Amino acid sequence: MQGQPRPVAGRTEKATTPFGRSHSLDFLRGLAIVGVMAIHVSQSFPSNIRVVDFAFMCGWTGVNVFYFVSAMTMCLMWTQRTETNPTRKFYIRRALRIAPLFWLAIPIYLAVNGTGPSSNAPNGIGPLQVILTATFLHGFWPDSVNSVVPGDWSIAAEMTFYLLFPLLITAFGARRHLYLVLAIVLHLVNVCLFKPYAFALFSAYYGPGHEAFVWNALHLSFLNQLPVFLVGCALFFALRDGFAKSDAAILAAFVTLSFIADRATGSHEFNYLIINLVLGAPVAGCIRLAIRWSPIEALGRNSYSMYLSHFAVIYGLRQIWPLADGLVSLLVAYAVTAALSYLVARATWHLVEERAQNLAHRLTSAGAGSPAMRLDIAASATATR
């Protein structure tokens, strides 16, 4: 299979209609980055109005929207391309999409935040944390998560999902029930076996007083995030091929088993699962209704760079901010953060990302099929975040 042109499994013109353009995916990415910036701005510039701060804090769900969109984008690109050596070319595209800008962020944030002890790295940052981060393995070691680059836990999850994706879609194809069943199995393995064992192990390693740090790192772990990606893959094929009653039955079983496991183990991941499953509904709705709005789509097309840069923007603003905490301060800080992050993203696109994408195209264009096959997918591929 690796050396042969890949057939497009189960594809029909009618079936691919919901994903014929990338506008809805860009719109969803835009909503996601709007939410992610909201939570981080509110943490540094609180309004001190409970309902407002709570609404901004709910922006954390933006990362999970990114996961859904990433999974569906990968499925979209994989099923609409016919090319030789698809797995190798997939890895080249993903690496050159994510790595250059992320590697640039590493020295910048080390300079900004330093290497001393922090809430994310109780013993400080050393060569181990930097090496794990640079190789996208930081999600597997607690004090490497979010310690070198703020928010890098989600990038670790994305890159690990990309590593597994060709294996998953080659094995499962369009059989969306297999993605859901695997999501159930992995969720139960996580809450019943892995999380309790890893919590005891790392709590002993870091010593008393670091239990909350370890618990949070395990919540952010890839094993806890992978079911979201798998549900996203299933959602893609359900939208493409049509929903069935069996989908609802499997999801109901998912919820029931998760509830039982949560009560039996005290893993406290049931609510997180429910929020993710509920998020799938508006994601599906945006795609089915082909919702679009150019300003939000523009943010979506630049969301990866905005994700990486908005932490530095917030840090810089906090150093010079003239307004006292309050509603006006929060709203102005949010608007300024969004505007500056977008400008940084446009600059990094021309200086870094565009060049990396051109290199990826050159490395994968040979035998990549007709230009028509690359139609709107290029727009989807330019922003997984």
Structural notes for this entry:
- The model is unreliable at 1-5, 7-16 and 367-385 (pLDDT under 50).
- The longest helix has 38 residues, at 327-364.
- By secondary structure, the protein is an all-alpha fold.
- It is built from 15 helices and no strands.
- Helix 3 packs across helix 9 and helix 7 runs antiparallel to helix 9 (222-241).
Count up the helices.
Answer: 15
Order of helices and strands: HHHHHHHHHHHHHHH
Helix content: over 70%
Largest sheet: none
Can you count the beta strands?
0
Shape: globular
Low-confidence stretches: 1-5, 7-16, 367-385
Distance between the termini: 29 Å
Strand content is under 5%
Task: Kindly provide the radius of gyration, computed on alpha-carbon positions and rounded to a whole number of angstroms.
Answer: 21 Å
Specify the structural class: mainly alpha
What's the pLDDT, averaged over the residues? 90
Descriptive tags:
disordered C terminus; disordered N terminus; single chain; mainly alpha
Q: Could you provide a short overview of the structure?
A:
The protein is an all-alpha fold and 385 residues long. Helices cover 72% and strands 0% of the residues.
